[in-house]
Write a sequence for this structure.
């Protein structure tokens, strides 16, 4: 077997495995056939009550009735009611305020009028006699 190639060696091993397993397949088929005994059903007496079958049927009858009536209906409308409403009203509270009012203070102003301006006048002096009154 040393001279066989790997391919031939694998082929011989697979054929050997098939040949070895064939008897087990045959034994299984024989056992399945031997255990086949016909089963005889045993009769049992059962009382079956008669059954009633109810089939519902629907019959459609076409009819058209046209009756129109106008019936007035009275409806009561409630009137508005006066409901007192509480309203918060702000109350004026006097707040003291301090306002500075301008005061007018007279300040002295120096003005020079033309009459007070000293002017030099050249007035010739007149001789006065002494002793005359």
């Amino acid at each position: 077997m040393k001279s066989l190639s790997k391919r031939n060696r694998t082929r011989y091993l697979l054929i050997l495995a098939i040949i070895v397993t064939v008897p087990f397949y045959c034994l299984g088929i024989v056992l399945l056939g031997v255990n086949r005994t016909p089963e005889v059903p045993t009769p049992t007496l059962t009382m079956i009550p008669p059954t009633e079958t109810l089939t519902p049927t629907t019959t459609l009858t076409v009819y058209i009735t046209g009756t129109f009536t106008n019936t007035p209906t009275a409806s009561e409308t409630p009137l508005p009611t006066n409901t007192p409403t509480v309203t918060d009203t702000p109350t004026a509270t006097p707040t003291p305020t301090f306002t500075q009012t301008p005061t007018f203070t007279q300040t002295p102003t120096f003005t020079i009028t033309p009459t007070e301006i000293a002017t030099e006048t050249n007035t010739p002096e007149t001789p006065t006699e002494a002793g005359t009154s």
Notes: The helical segments are 6-34. The first helix runs from residue 6 to 34.
